[in-house]
């Protein structure tokens, strides 16, 4: 894909040099409790970060805004970069008040100390879903900042995201015209449920491969609990979970809806119609088929040019498959995926 094609990158994982970066925005008693987040308990045996993503000044990968501009934004002609960061896992904490304080401090840090560093940077509002009322207050507080483009949630949650306790969060996002971005997180960590429907896997490889299961569970919940019907203007961006599972979900939901629609009487259309109208998916990382044509066939099944979003997943090193496949699409389809779809979704 030509680097000169203007792009919107919907998934850039900027990092803090230290959790203490957000301490100036912490009230007591939370400052003394720190800003650590739960982990999945499955440490990776390999480093997924690009070797050249470490700033020359030192610190974690993607922790230097100027270096991100030099290394990612300018060489790839990225007009807007949506910063998803790492703090979306705050919803896995057990203490709802501590979690809400971390989310608020992080959002203030992003809005005041990070996003102003480059015109391309846009933020995502982190909320702690344990207490939806505090989450709504945080969305209302941050949504009027023009630098904030979405609300971001982790797949690591205290419940399935379609459940009614989360609906006030969706109402607030819809009221402000903000999409909901959902990203794989530390499922199984903190106060969340096991990372698979059958329990805890043994190895990191098993854990890493279960990402699509988390997306399946949350999307089925969102659709069957009637979130798209209740909030017709709300959109969801499913980031970092691949797309090969999407046709299976569309087909199976519609098949079962024919016989079981009486159990979800609030749905007025086939589930697949809600998904096509309300959900978009990042084009990176993608699955790798032995035959690239299989992936192109998959793209046809999901109407890729209208539902895919360009993402680098920076600083992770897994964008080769997406780039190679997008190069095989028509210029019109590529433009939709790398720019138009995100511009409309995030109202940039």
Give a quick precis of the structure.
With 348 residues, the protein is of the alpha/beta class. It has helices at residues 30-33, 65-73, 96-114, 132-142, 167-175, 204-209, 211-224, 227-230, 246-260, 271-278, 292-302, 304-307, 320-326, 331-345; strands at residues 7-12, 78-83, 121-126, 148-154, 180-183, 236-238, 279-282, 308-309. α3 (96-114) packs parallel to α4 and α4 runs parallel beside α5.
What does this structure look like?
This is Amidohydrolase. Residues 55-348 form the Amidohydrolase-related domain. One of its GO terms (biological process) is secondary metabolic process. With 348 residues, the protein is of the alpha/beta class. The chain has one domain (9-36, 51-345): TIM Barrel. Helix content is 39%, strand content 11%. It is built from 14 helices and 8 strands. It has an 8-stranded parallel β-sheet, sandwiched between helices. α4 (132-142) links the parallel β3 and β4 (148-154). α3 packs parallel to α4 (132-142) and α4 (132-142) runs parallel beside α5 (167-175). The protein starts with 6 loop residues before the first strand and ends with a helix.
Unreliable residue stretches: none
The level 1 CATH classification is Alpha Beta
Output the CATH topology: TIM Barrel
Please, how many domains? 1
Q: Please state roughly what percent of the residues sit in beta strands, choosing from under 5%, 5-15%, 15-25%, 25-35%, 35-45% or over 45%.
A: 5-15%
CATH homologous superfamily descriptor: Metal-dependent hydrolases
CATH architecture: Alpha-Beta Barrel
Instruction: Give the strand line-up of the largest sheet.
Output: 1-2-3-4-5-6-7-8
Describe the main β-sheet briefly: 8 strands, parallel
Mean pLDDT: 94
What's the end-to-end separation, in Å? 23 Å
What oligomeric assembly is this protein in?
single chain
Number of strands: 8
Rg from C-alpha positions? 19 Å
Q: What does the overall shape look like?
A: globular
Structural class by sheet pairing and helices? alpha/beta
Share of helical residues: 25-40%
User: Given the structure, what is the number of helices?
Assistant: 14
SSE run = EHHEHEHEHEHHHEHHEHHEHH
Keywords: Hydrolase, Lyase
Protein name: Amidohydrolase
InterPro entries: ACMSD, Amidohydro-rel, Metal_Hydrolase
GO molecular function, one term: hydrolase activity
């Amino acid at each position: 894909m030509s680097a000169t094609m203007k792009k919107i990158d919907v998934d850039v994982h900027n990092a803090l040099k230290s959790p203490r970066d957000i301490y100036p925005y912490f009230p007591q008693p939370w400052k003394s409790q720190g800003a650590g987040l739960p982990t999945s308990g499955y440490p990776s045996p390999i480093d997924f970060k690009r070797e050249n993503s470490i700033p020359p000044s030192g610190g974690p990968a993607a922790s230097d805004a100027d270096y991100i501009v030099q290394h990612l934004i300018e060489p790839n002609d990225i007009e807007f970069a949506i910063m998803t960061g790492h703090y979306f896992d705050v919803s896995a904490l057990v203490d709802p008040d501590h979690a809400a304080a971390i989310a608020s401090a992080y959002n203030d840090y992003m809005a005041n100390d990070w996003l102003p560093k480059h015109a391309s940077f846009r933020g995502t509002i982190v909320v702690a879903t344990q207490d939806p009322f505090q989450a709504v207050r945080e969305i209302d507080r941050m949504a009027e900042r023009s630098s904030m483009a979405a609300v971001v949630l982790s797949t690591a949650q205290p419940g399935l995201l379609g459940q009614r306790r989360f609906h006030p969060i969706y109402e607030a996002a819809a009221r402000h015209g903000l999409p909901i971005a959902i990203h794989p997180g530390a499922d199984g960590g903190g106060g969340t449920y096991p990372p698979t429907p059958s329990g805890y896997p043994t190895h990191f490889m098993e854990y890493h491969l279960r990402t699509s299961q988390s997306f399946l569970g949350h999307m089925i919940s969102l659709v069957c609990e009637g979130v798209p019907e209740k909030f017709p203007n709300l959109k969801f961006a499913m980031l970092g979970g691949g797309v090969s599972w999407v046709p299976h979900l569309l087909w199976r939901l519609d098949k079962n809806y024919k016989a079981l629609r009486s159990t979800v009487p609030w749905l007025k259309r086939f589930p697949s119609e809600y998904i096509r109208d309300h959900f978009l998916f990042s084009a990176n990382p993608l699955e790798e088929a032995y035959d690239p044509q299989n992936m192109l066939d998959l793209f046809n099944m999901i109407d890729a040019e209208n539902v895919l979003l360009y993402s680098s997943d920076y600083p992770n090193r897994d964008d080769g498959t997406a780039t190679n496949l997008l190069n095989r699409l028509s210029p019109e389809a590529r433009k939709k995926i790398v720019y138009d779809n995100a511009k409309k979704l995030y109202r940039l």
